């Protein structure tokens, strides 16, 4: 039955499998099934479109399935294009903000930041080859006798050639990201080339670290090898989100979720699969153009690259270092999530009371002014709305405010939030008497690395009280 947010109930005997296809807002979802039917004892083995299913379209656009006794379903979320009304409206606003005539043209202008990011991706191979050649030069300091051992035992110099080849392959991905962004943002090759010439003529070089971090987020967010990093936080947040909004039949209200600092958006897509209307937000243009690439390349395992060749430390084997990683690990329904680019504290000034949930995931410690984040979260939430937080308190290099956890709780409560009880599956209580829990979460991108970077990430649910 249609539940208002494309949720479907399949009746199996006396049981009900709810939320089986809870994100069915795209007509491109593919369902293959093998079923025993109530009125037929024969197995419908291979034909998923079988008139014995008795599928009746409803005026709402959903479907009603009668008398299915036993069903085995594989649900694959299809590659829905980002072409909904919400997507088109936001794209129009974004292109307006991207115009050179919008605001003051300086290094903070969104078009300037976009061109900087495109410059970085365009020069990925060049910047990493400079480092590789530096390592080659350092290898010359090894004695002839020592080199003989290294070449005989591990063919060390061959690693330089291998990595050079893989860097070139990675540049192919980076160039595809650039080409996709030029088309999406309506930027000409001539404009980008002029920007690069002028930038390099002034003595500046293309950014390297931000490009590498964005590429590694394909691993963290959209590769099978990133599951270990995603699971602790995602499980806690998504299960809590599902508990806060149990399935309500006969309602057409779709809860709205905002996720600032979303990176490459995987958490937002997982929330959308639960049936929420999701908006994600990201400041970094390096992340944004990588996400735009995902929106256009949605097929499972359609892309492959070599994310770990830019650093030779902490590898158990050379094969680990040069191994390929494919993404995305699931088909992407790009129609289910809208990205709003820009500064979280300024991009939603007209969004008072718009959202039912704000999820800050590895985000609040990125603030220049932490209290401004609190202001914005409070502004965006409707009365009774929920703020879910999961992440560390690793402040940056120049924050205006650096609060300890107990201070955050006090300040947030003064805004009119009430911290709610949460499940112990999200960790142990950090502050006695306060509903804040700590859970270890890894943040390192490489699941085979010989090092581990992890945080005691803090989780809470705070509800905005009615005035």
From TrEMBL:
It holds the Pfam family CARME. One of its GO terms (molecular function) is S-adenosylmethionine-dependent methyltransferase activity. It comes from the Eukaryota. InterPro entries: CARME, SAM-dependent_MTases_sf. This is N2227-like protein-domain-containing protein.
């Amino acid at each position: 039955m249609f539940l208002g947010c494309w949720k479907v109930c399949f009746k199996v005997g006396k049981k009900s499998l709810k939320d089986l296809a809870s994100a069915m807002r795209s007509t491109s979802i593919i369902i293959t099934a093998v079923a025993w039917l109530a009125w037929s004892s024969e197995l419908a083995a291979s034909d998923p479109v079988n008139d014995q299913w008795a599928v009746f379209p409803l005026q709402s656009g959903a479907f009603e399935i009668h008398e299915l006794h036993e069903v085995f379903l594989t649900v694959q979320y299809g590659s829905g294009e980002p072409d909904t009304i919400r997507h088109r409206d936001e794209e129009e606003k974004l292109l307006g903000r991207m115009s050179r005539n919008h605001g003051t043209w300086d290094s903070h202008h969104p078009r300037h930041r976009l061109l900087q990011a495109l410059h970085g991706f365009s020069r990925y191979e060049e910047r990493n080859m400079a480092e590789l050649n530096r390592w080659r030069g350092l290898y010359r300091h090894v004695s002839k006798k020592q080199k003989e051992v290294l070449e005989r035992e591990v063919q060390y110099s061959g690693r330089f050639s291998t990595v050079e080849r893989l860097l070139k392959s990675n540049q192919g991905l980076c160039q595809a990201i650039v080409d996709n962004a030029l088309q999406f943002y309506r930027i000409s090759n001539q404009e980008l080339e002029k920007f690069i010439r002028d930038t390099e003529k002034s003595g500046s070089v293309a950014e390297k670290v931000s490009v590498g971090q964005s590429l590694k987020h394909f691993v963290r967010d959209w590769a099978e090898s990133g599951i270990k990093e995603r699971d602790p936080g995602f499980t806690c947040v998504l299960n809590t989100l599902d508990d806060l909004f149990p399935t309500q039949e006969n309602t057409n209200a779709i809860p709205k979720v905002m996720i600032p600092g979303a990176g490459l958006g995987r958490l937002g897509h997982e929330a959308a699969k639960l049936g929420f209307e999701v908006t994600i937000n990201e400041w970094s243009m390096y992340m944004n153009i990588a996400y735009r690439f995902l929106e256009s390349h949605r097929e499972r395992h359609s892309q492959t690259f070599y994310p770990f060749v830019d650093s030779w430390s902490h590898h158990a084997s050379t094969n680990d270092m040069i191994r390929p990683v494919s993404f995305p690990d699931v088909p992407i329904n790009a129609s289910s999530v809208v990205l709003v680019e820009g500064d979280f504290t300024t991009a939603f000034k007209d969004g008072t009371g718009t959202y039912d949930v704000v999820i800050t995931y590895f985000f609040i410690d990125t603030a220049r002014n932490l209290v401004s984040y609190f202001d914005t979260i409070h502004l965006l939430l409707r009365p009774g709305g929920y703020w879910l937080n999961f992440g560390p308190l690793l402040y940056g290099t120049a924050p205006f405010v650096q609060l300890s956890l107990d201070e955050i709780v006090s300040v947030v409560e003064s805004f009119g939030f009430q911290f709610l009880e949460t499940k112990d599956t999200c960790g142990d209580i950090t502050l006695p008497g306060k509903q804040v829990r700590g859970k270890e979460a890894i943040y390192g991108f490489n699941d085979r690395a010989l090092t581990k970077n992890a945080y005691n990430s803090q989780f809470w649910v705070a509800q905005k009280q009615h005035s």
